[in-house]
Amino acid sequence: MPIQRRHLLGLIFAFSAVLTTAGAAQSPSETELQRIIRTKTVRVGAVEASPWYIRDLKTDKWTGVVPEQVELLFSSVGVAVEYVPTQWGTAVAGLQSDKFDLMGAYVANPQRALVVDFTSSTYDGRNGLVTLNPEIARATEWSSLNKPSTKVAGVDGAGATVAIQRLLPEATWTVVQANDAMMLELDSGRVDTIASNEPTLQSYIDTRKRGTMVMPSPLIITGANMAVRKTPDKDFLTWLNTALEYFRRTGALQTIGDKYLAVKR
């Protein structure tokens, strides 16, 4: 094993061993990470939004990009993952009210960074539209779509929705709570186009066997991060970034990305 990888893995396990000892007895000064290591459970906010989170309604098992990422990270230190259903638009409130400890595939922006902390990016990708409307399919500039006659559906609080709304403030927006509801708006003809990240847009095309993906100029790139509560000690955030960097270098994060986020071009 290369020296850098051994060093990073050693940091992960050494840090966890220290915190296990320090958190053996519960105390008012216990940090987020000490509690997680002591209880051997981390609570992760989860939104039914393929490919980021996929919930099997029969077994209640979660798969997808985020579940595979967090289970990879936390299994390395013997911590189990508990999923807490939420929505993109209420995820910040869920973190602040201690309903869960972490939110994955959450886009960092200046407003959110005032109230929660973010890890380094776990995915950087393009955002755009899928449409069944030939006129929108020919659009090359966002400005040509910025008019009330452009009917767009997006998911409340999703990074792509927030980013694209800034470029299309004059469009007629329908904001819903989940990807399935957004896609139904397009299926029903109530909107001309849906706004999302590239993997989600590709998923619509793959499952419906129709639709045109449009990436007008200027190109919008957003990252997917993990979000945690703001704490003075920052130990949980530090550990997450260390673990992410280790598994990025081993190629494990890339393997997860290739499994769920591969896009046809």
Detailed description of the structure:
By secondary structure, this protein is α/β, with parallel strands linked by helices. The chain folds into two domains: 3-123 and 223-261, D-Maltodextrin-Binding Protein, domain 2 (3-Layer(aba) Sandwich); 125-221, D-Maltodextrin-Binding Protein, domain 2. Helices cover 41% and strands 23% of the residues. Strands 1, 4, 5, 6, 7, 8, 9, 10, 11 and 12 form a ten-stranded mixed beta sheet that branches. It has a two-stranded antiparallel sheet with strand order 2-3. Strand 2 and strand 3 form a beta hairpin. Helix 1 packs across helix 2 (32-39), helix 1 packs antiparallel against helix 10 (235-250) and helix 3 (65-75) packs antiparallel against helix 11 (252-261). The longest helix is centred in the N-terminal third of the chain and has 20 residues, at 3-22. The chain is elongated, with a radius of gyration of 20 Å. Mean pLDDT is 90; it is low at 18-26.
Features:
41% helix, single chain, 2 domains, 10-stranded mixed sheet, 11 helices, D-Maltodextrin-Binding Protein, domain 2, alpha/beta, 12 strands, 265 residues, two-stranded antiparallel ribbon
Could you provide a short overview of the structure?
The protein is α/β, with parallel strands linked by helices and 265 residues long. It is 41% helix and 23% strand.
